[in-house]
Design a protein that fits this description.
Length: 365
């Protein structure tokens, strides 16, 4: 729980508060690549938290990452995505030549990787092994950062082997970037087709056929990240709403004196309290070595539902001004909506969670 943090964790939390106040918030309203933020983050050690020790990182625990991510998000600052360095993702623990050619340059910021999982039902990404190459055909329809990526960690269904993660350079002959687009949260994506693209079999991560567990590991980390950001942003939204409710309305009475307003406000707090409790419990379970696939799903589904509901309630209580383009709640509303689809649609995750218990006897309450 956030109340039971050690002295070291509390120190980390204070550093995150200072970083948000002195480095991130002063950049509100500016646009840029975030390089200065990344440098400042490197100087105090946040940047390295997501990176393995073998590659100069500090490989922070799930709880440490949760503390920093939640605290930064609680300031609703800009440039949040520039704070942490790229993690190894599905390349974690890969052997040679993948480590030298992709993992190390990516961790150093010399190459950019993206993640290709989602595909149109009618054009799945298929591969067959032909000697020492994999021949890949099909499409990926929603690759975040794909237009700037040097390579895509791509889920490919291999003939006779099943799903495998394959590293595909975006400049491989037969790979075409067919579309660039932006989603309502402001993030940028690309769609790709693969037309008999020939990729060395040494670019298969791990054993052919173990693609799904690898992709799952990356997704589990990202689900906790999303949940921590949701909880932090909910704290910010509640602070914003609390200040608004202390102001007098047209009649001169404080806005927060109305019973109907208090009921909505109480729901915001109840939902945030529950999500925050879940988040810290799950981070501790992860650090204790438990398999948190099901609990990570529970956190992500609950926290993304929670933040959508909390921001929506805040907009309702603040009124029309909150929907004026440029208002922080309007921007937040667009941003948080994406998270009920990104990294797994909520209903699909619910089905996975049910399957975890009913078919595999996994998961705790
Ligand atoms: C901001 C953002 C970033 C993203 N980044 C990436 C990325 O980097 N890489 C990547 O690969 N993908 C990415 N995605 C895509 C995202 O993972 C998918 O949109 C999501 O998994 C849903 O898949 P879909 O869009 O194909 O919709 P579908 O799978 O068609 O699902 C649509 C809806 O249909 C229903 N549904 C579908 N299947 C079932 C089922 N089995 N049971 C019950 N209901 C079901 C659910 O209501 C679901 O919400 C991103 C999405 C967003 C919004």
């Amino acid at each position: 729980m956030p109340e039971q943090l050690s002295k070291a964790h509390l120190k980390l939390k204070d550093s995150a508060t200072r970083f948000a106040e002195t480095v991130l918030l002063p950049r509100a309203g500016t646009t840029g690549e975030g390089r200065e933020v990344a440098n400042a983050s490197q100087a105090i050690g946040f940047h390295q938290m997501t990176q393995p020790k073998a590659h100069g990182g500090s490989a922070a625990s799930a709880l440490e990452l949760t503390v920093v991510r939640e605290e930064l998000a609680a300031h609703n600052p800009p440039y949040l995505e520039s704070v942490f360095g790229p993690g190894p993702g599905v390349l974690a623990g890969c052997g040679e030549p993948l480590a030298s050619e992709y993992l190390v340059p990516m961790l150093r910021g010399e190459k950019r990787g993206a993640f290709g999982f989602t595909e149109p039902d009618e054009h799945p990404t298929l591969g067959r092994i032909d000697g020492d190459v994999v021949v890949v055909t099909g499409c990926k329809s929603y690759v975040t950062g794909g237009a700037d990526a040097d390579f895509i960690n791509t889920m490919v269904r291999l003939d006779d082997h099943g799903p495998a993660m394959v590293v595909i350079d975006t400049d491989t002959p037969g790979v075409t970037l067919t579309e660039r687009f932006e989603s309502l949260d402001g993030s940028h994506h690309a769609a790709f087709t693969f037309d008999e693209a020939r990729v060395p079999t040494s670019n298969i991560i791990g054993k052919p056929g173990d693609g799904l567990p690898r992709a799952m590991r990356q997704i589990v980390d990202t689900r906790l990240l999303i949940a921590a950001q949701c909880v932090g942003l909910a704290r910010w939204t509640i602070d914003f709403t609390t200040q608004h409710l202390a102001q007098p309305d047209r009649t001169g009475e404080p806005r927060g004196d109305k019973e109907g307003v208090r009921l909505r406000y109480a729901d915001m707090r109840i939902q945030t309290y529950a999500a925050r409790s879940m988040l810290y419990r799950t981070a501790r379970l992860a650090d204790a070595g438990d398999n948190i696939v099901n609990e990570g799903i529970a956190c992500k589904v609950f926290a993304t539902d929670m933040i959508t509901s909390v921001v929506d309630a805040a907009i309702q209580l603040v009124g029309g001004n909150a929907l004026v383009v440029g208002h922080p709640l309007e921007a937040l509303y667009r941003r948080v909506r994406a998270w009920r689809l990104a990294e797994g649609a909520s209903d699909v995750l619910r089905l996975n969670l049910a399957r975890g218990k009913l078919d595999l006897d996994k998961g705790i309450l």
